[in-house]
Amino acid sequence: MIERRLWTCGRCRTDNLARSASCRRCGAPRSSAVAGGSPGFAAILSGLLPGLGQVYQDRVLRGVLMLLVPAFALTLAGAFIFIADPLTRFAVRNASLVALVVVGGIFAVHIVSVADAFAGRLGELRGRHVIDYLVLAAVTVALIFFYGAVYRGGSAWADLAAKVFEPVARALPATVEESPPPQWSGSDRLNVLLLGIDRRGRVSETQNTDTVILLSLDPLNRTAAMLSIPRDTLVTIPGHGQDKVNSAYSKVGAERGPDLVRRTVEDFLGIPVHSYALIDFDAFTRTVDAFGGVLVDVKRPLRDEEYPTADFGIERLHLLV
Question: In sequence order, which residues have a C-beta less than 8 Å from that of residue 235 and are 6 or more positions away?
Fold first, then answer.
């Protein structure tokens, strides 16, 4: 019976019969043989599971690392995205891009594992049989089609997950840095944002700016214009997604609230807002009193049994003719 098993010389890449003690071409001893069997079969194994081809070549540690290190890195990245609010928000709002990066990264690791298994212990891709190269090409093409299908399916699921978790992303606190207001040249229009906040003598539960008015002054033509933005207008609040315009102030509090409202209105109207003025109920009352008050002339007696007070209570209001 003729022996069919071969060993490959590590020096000249010549196949020799199993019973040969040295290479029939260069005379190198059998100890220089390339370990690990067929490189094509090793590539197939790593194509099925990263690291399996290395195990087949008796490189067990390398094979285990090929499988576990990418899995650990993917798990760690997922944990960071889940814990860190800005990363969570980015992942939810860019689900398709995240799916592309993840699938592309896994595909790259898989290709590297296949190439490493094909190269073997000597770490070279040259000097193989034609059939081995054909096998390597077939495995590569199969992986391209496989990960392409995975991305198409994963992208659809990612978009669905983004729609499901979008309310969660909106609720997460944002870390958006303040930006200084634009400088006024002295000759261009001066745009000032007038904000009336729902705050009455104590810390309010909402602190919404229910009055949002943009005052635009033209110093050259000596004209002025005012634009009132309804409080329920749906706008994009930087770092917080879409919400009503009157809620922008309350999302970050008194310290950064006015600047966030200013930037929100700038993005909504597409014009620079140079400054702002914030007034609450108490300040509005004092302002009216400073001008001597307001005369209310009624045609007939007016009585309100539940007139709201500044301390969130009610009182009786009676106006006579």
Answer: 242, 243, 244, 245, 248, 264, 265, 267, 268
